[in-house]
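Q: What changes when zinc ion is included in the input?
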Amino acid sequence: MTIRLVRVIDHQRRGQVGVVHGEQVVLLPYADLPEMLEDGAFEPADLLDAAESGRGEAVPLTGVPLGPPVAKPPKIVCIGLNYYDHASESGMQVPKQPILFSKYSTAIVGPGEPVVIPPVTKQVDYEVELGVVIGRRGKNIPLENALDYVFGYTICNDISARDLQFEDGQWLKGKTLDTFLPVGPAVVTSDEIPDPQALEISLERNGTVVQHASTKDMIFPVAEIVAYISLLMTLEPGDLIATGTPPGVILGQKDPLWLRPGDILRAKIEGIGELVNPVAEG
Ligand code: ZN
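A: The predicted holo structure follows.
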């Protein structure tokens, strides 16, 4: 059975981690994934046991609102220009080392939640990306063990305000506006995805496929990204890494039709699912 972790949101807007079990979500005693991973609860067999034992409270999967499966990662590290054709459509050189930037947890929203465009930007773009959730603490991680530090995978949409991104040489302010990081709908444990470099990845805007690629086209694969980041900083349980987007973003178009209120974005990754978010005006 594939192990999928979600975060159910209750009436008081509180989140609770749960394991999907058939049509039910079996709730675990954690408000967020970093807390669960910090507690050492990350063995897929234990999660499966928790789901199947019937001990935990279960709620129906349909009809409960889901938040982002990880809401407050200790860190969010994003990789820029990690697919060859996306680097060229952006008019950038293929990087020699992974390009790192960051987003903050205030940008995270869950499945179905709107991406809100504030008046401060006029050029908002989408970027479907494979999201990596770190399972345990690591520094100077050897490349050959790097995937052992990955707890699971999810879908990220690295929404980007291009006018702000390129205004001052730092990408930060164009990248981390509120609601600019949809994540979800679930985190799938890494044992279910033995090769993260063999996944179909796509994004539909209003039903039209605009991005469609394979994660095999990444310049720096997941293992290299994890090992490289860990040379710079300690990776911690629950850290989220967005691994870069394939070609097809609005930035690369001749006559860019930037995101508009009413647009629907459907990001898909093979083996993980679909992350759908509407666009709204702020
Ligand atoms: Zn990105």
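Observations recorded in class: The radius of gyration is 18 Å.
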